[in-house]
Specification:
This protein is mostly helical. Helices cover 38% and strands 8% of the residues. It has one domain. The protein contains 2 helices and 2 strands.
């Protein structure tokens, strides 16, 4: 994983000095106050591990979570 900063120009994210291959999947974080995001080394490591888990398929989809929540709710209802 790599971390880059860029800017939106004419609706397109531009990353200065970097040419990413066509079709590269990216994640974009947009700070609400337009301040730069400063991540500590620990935060970067945690983010990289989370992304690696997703890439390995170690996640729960919304559909799976919703079904689990519905099941838990049904079991919690008084009989």
């Amino acid at each position: 994983m790599s971390v880059y900063s860029g800017k939106v120009v004419n609706g397109v994210v531009r990353v200065k000095g970097v040419l990413l291959p066509e079709g590269t999947k990216v994640t974009i974080l947009v700070p609400e106050d337009e301040e730069p995001i400063d991540l500590s080394p620990d935060m970067i490591a945690e983010l990289e591990e989370s992304i690696a888990q997703i890439e390995r398929g170690e996640y729960v989809t919304w559909e799976e979570l919703r079904e689990e929540l519905r099941k838990t709710e049904r079991e919690a209802q008084p009989r």
